[in-house]
């Protein structure tokens, strides 16, 4: 048998052998577009770059482990109620940031009161958040005497802080720029009564605009207050603030242009919590061990310009009580004079009866 004749058919059969059975399938239109040599190469590069970015974005993020200080604060925060009576002695040698973190934990655990705030207050503090706590006028006044460099203060939902405490606050804290208030009927009423305190009293000046005034030209009142965060302020009060305190912006919103050229600080944004930054690395279970969890403040369901029924009744009662106070004082004086006159009459009648009985006895004895 000739070897050449037997090799040729084998060679031709090997050449016809298809080692890639899927090569006959027509590509999809998208593949044709990308594989088209006439298609711009820049788009192909950009498309692959976007795919790489999406892939990196979908990768699990590596979380930074908490620091040793944050772990220690978490342990202290969980046992804060056990050491709260001795907190004044413990906090003497603590740094200012540690004191602020402990105050934030105490507020979240509903343990923040006058004693705790005064024990932790530091002269270098620029931000104080006592919202929703039991701090009263006494505590906020003492804190204002210690922390004279306060720029932002949150006293919202503090039912024990009255206009007296806010009045003393603005006297001591001349750098206060942002004040957060309201949040509950009593706190709303306090803020409404403080409009005269917020309004600056001016010395004699010749400027044409409030914006041109210097701080030393303001005799009293809130000298540096520029941002007032009061989510459920009513329409009437809002108009009063705009008319009497034009330097103060109520409920500012983030804007690239700001207000009158002034950048809105983050402390004045409604959705921000002032002391969140100092506890961001601390385990939230520190203040959730008793079933209390911090929730972001949300606007009320009702319209922000509408007062609650209880607040309307309270304001109506206060107005009626103030209106009838002079009449009640007049009636009290009349009742007092009448009682004195009746007492004198009763005494005269009693004296006359005694004299008459004595006279009748003497006449009977003579007869």
From TrEMBL:
Q: Where is this region: Disordered?
A: 1-22
SMART domains recorded? LRR_CC
Query: Which intervals carry biased composition (Polar residues)?
Result: 9-22
Q: What is this protein called?
A: Protein AMN1-like protein
The organism named in the record is: Senna tora
